[in-house]
Predict the 3D structure of the following.
Amino acid sequence: MIKKKRVLSAILAISMLLSTGKTIFALENNVQDNTASKNHNDLRLWYDSPAEDSYNGWEKWSLPIGNGYMGASIFGGVEYERVQLNEKTLWSGGPSESRSDYSGGNIASNGTVKVNGIDVPIMKAIQDAYARGDTDTANSLCNKLTGVSDDAGTKGYGYYLSYGN
């Protein structure tokens, strides 16, 4: 009877060890898998050089954040970081007492343009020019719709102003 108890207790002890061993090995493998997945994340951004420090570097190398109404572009390197702020009212120009004829940069037009002496809807003429591959003509016609930028600020249309740095 005592011999039977010893054999049964030995079998029970061995079976308990074997059952916990599988759990320990499974936990060990799970820890390794979690570590590997933390180091490999497809959504993580890694850079091996700083953003170019130039006048328009923020346009090419920044990471934009925001919601369209306001935002920022963040760029730089390890030692320093630059922040370019953007807010919809950072714009030069606009209506004022001195510019009663302000049109937002849009040119008054009847919506047609002369092509070979015939009045053609300007949008159709632009589409046809692009279809032919004539981008110079298409760009010229587009300028007849919206005008060109007024970087000098003399016509009141204005331009975007950046803020921060």
